């Protein structure tokens, strides 16, 4: 709808008619959208397997000077900021999150990504604290920046009570979403404070396609959620998909509770126009059933609510009942009596 305006003076002279820029009458709420994450990882050398020289053996982490600027310690396709302490680590043990290598960062690393303008992208990574002197004193913080949007994540440092090896790594998984404004963007990853740095592995950048159809309404995939539990520390992460063709979405609010729509764990909290959120300050009881609710609001003040599929908090590791190297005597006797009788 548009307004047409003209003016008439005392002499009866009439001006030209001018039109307003118009407005849309919107009576529809934001639509639910399912999120399809494409398979292609747009990050190069995401697990730091390719190094200019030779990666450092994990056993030598406490005896290595990461700040001497040695080129052979640096990963390919990643840029290192000045005064940063960087080194790629490897281990014959299965301690890396993906592959055999990961990176130690005290400072910042970055990479230029080729993207499509005005598209949504998901960035995931895992982080951990290094088992060096002083690393267990307090939680550490890392950050991720893309398109001048910066998000801080916490790296929990208290060792799990069941860990018996001092060099065990406890990986944290982090998920973020960004919308591209150009066809190129700089992805920056770094540590915030402290002298010990952080460990990073398995960086993934994937394009997200939003689908608005009957499948989106019934699939239950509009809100994705997961939790991380390490020792007595827990965090909840969620992401969601909404679209609105008439009025822009201006705010998202999310809540966490023990039943659908409830707020016992977290009251409704605004995250602006971010389509993801996380809460690092929650305590989750074993076998709790968790529900996450999201409300989207458009510029017309209309809202739409969506729920994540509930999930159970499992704080217990698997229990190995037995380990059998080959067939035992009983099985062998049964096999022989069956085959040769």
UniProtKB/TrEMBL annotation:
Lineage: superkingdom: Eukaryota
Protein name: Uncharacterized protein
Native source organism of the sequence: Mytilus galloprovincialis
